[in-house]
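Q: My labmate handed me this sequence with no annotations at all. I'd like to see what the chain might look like in three dimensions before we decide whether it's worth expressing. Could you predict it?
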Amino acid sequence: MQLAGLFIYPVKSLGGCAVETAEVDALGLVGDRRFLVVDEAGRFLTQRTLPRMALIGTRLEAVHVTLSAPGQPDLRVARASDPSAPMRRVSVWKDNGLVTEYCGPEAAEWLTKFLGVNCDLVRLGHDYERQVLKPASRPGDNVSFADSCPFLLLGEASLADLNDRLLGSGEEPVSLDRFRANLIVRGSPPYTEDSWRALRIRELSFRSAGPCARCMVTTTDQSTAQRGPEPLRTLASYRRDPRDSTVVNFGVNLIHETKAGRLRLGDPVFAS
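A: Here is what I predict for the chain of 272 residues:
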């Protein structure tokens, strides 16, 4: 098996960046989900309620992340923590009071104009800390603004099998970006990743934190922000969690045991 795809999402729920190589730090891929869009109360915003977020592209540069959207000039925001920036306390799911840095009125106005709701952009800072809450978590396992875990992995063959099922029922296939995975593995049979307990890529070791439960974001076309019933409807026909039939799984969450290193496309993948 080999690493066939490597993706970074600089701002949670905005467009992602396909990269050939990426550094890994204590929170996951460097640059991944280090920014967050929040409402006036500091609650995180995603495509679940604002599918238009899919239309905002991101570009990761050495010292800035650049946002782009139809009809708007590009917006550049510094990636590095700024201790002098105003502090904002925000919430992501059950994690409340997370300490972040406000990215300023220019970013807030840019996002508010495009999304049509009052919102702000915040960034991880030196005082940010968020523990992984999965049962597989251990002391020292922290996560950025991702939903639950530092990494999300999907087998290339699993997506191919899903698209075969969609085509077989007269539906259009879906693209990889619907699933917002960081790591794409080639060379494994469909859904084999479900059973992996541990993974090694180069010098980096990972352990499974269980399947990834899917939501309506998968039904949002990332190029148009339009929604339909697929692929969640088809996934629900054969990928329901045996412990909870209301949950539909696709892909697996990972926690990295090696907290520093580098990943490259084509790296061999070893699973057990």
